[in-house]
Write a structure and sequence with these properties.
Layout: E1 5-18, E2 21-34, H1 49-56, E3 64-69, E4 72-73, E5 81-84, H2 96-100, H3 102-106, H4 112-124, H5 140-152, E6 158-161, H6 170-185
Bound molecules: adenosine-5'-triphosphate.
Pfam families: ABC_tran
Protein name: ABC transporter
InterPro entries: AAA+_ATPase, ABC_SmlMolc_Importer, ABC_transporter-like_ATP-bd, ABC_transporter-like_CS, P-loop_NTPase
């Protein structure tokens, strides 16, 4: 294992089995991602991008091949990886603040310091005034930012973004992409 590698994808294939038959979503894919790199997966709809991210995140087990994160084989979800889906998956019955801290709550890491960090993220992403609102009271872009905060709150070493900003307008998308680039390089 090369110490510079953050993610190693080795000969991964993924076949979905359904009642209609088999779909080969990924065929023998190998890819190394090094620490500090920002990598974009580009391809037409249905080419297997989300499937690959779910495999790296440990949510799906590949049909063949292996994935290593920091040299350890992925065998389930881990705190090293933050995964932001295409949809925001906010809980409608929790406020924006409560949604933002849910990962910390689940991992039993909700310290005063972390609460302050979440508050600062809410301010940075323009949601400070909306933290006691419910998701249904927010626009699509605001919801997406709340989902981003929920992911960043855990300070994941590796951030997987699955077209997470598609609901944002162009201007906000640029701002948030810049913010992420900056905070990842710190
Ligand atoms: N749970 C599933 N069961 C069966 N087939 C699936 C499942 N998830 C995805 N597929 C199929 O696997 C292929 C890859 O899907 P995937 O969602 O990974 O593509 P994608 O590149 O992320 O697409 P998009 O850009 O539209 O999000 C598609 O043909 C899709 O129909």
């Amino acid at each position: 294992m090369n110490p510079g590698k953050a993610v190693e994808i080795k000969n991964v294939s993924m076949i979905y089995h359904t009642l209609d038959g088999e779909t080969e979503a990924i065929k023998d894919l190998s890819l190394d991602i090094y620490h500090g790199e920002i990598v974009a997966l580009i391809g037409p709809s249905g080419c297997g991008k989300s499937t690959l991210l779910s495999i790296v995140a440990g949510l799906l087990k590949p049909s063949k091949g292996k994935v290593f994160v920091n040299g350890n084989e992925v065998k389930g979800t881990s705190g090293d990886i933050g995964y932001m889906f295409q949809r925001d998956h906010l809980f409608e019955w929790r406020t924006i603040y409560q949604n933002s801290i849910i990962g910390l709550e689940i991992q039993n890491k909700l310290t005063d310091e972390k609460k302050k960090f979440v508050e600062s993220l809410l301010d940075t992403y323009g949601l400070g005034e909306f933290k006691d609102h419910y998701p249904r009271q927010l626009s699509g872009g605001m919801r997406q930012r709340a989902a981003l905060i929920r992911t960043l709150a855990l300070k994941p070493e590796i951030l997987l973004l699955d077209e997470s900003f598609s609901a944002l307008d162009y201007q906000t998308r640029l701002t948030i992409a810049d913010e992420i680039g900056t905070c990842r390089s710190q």
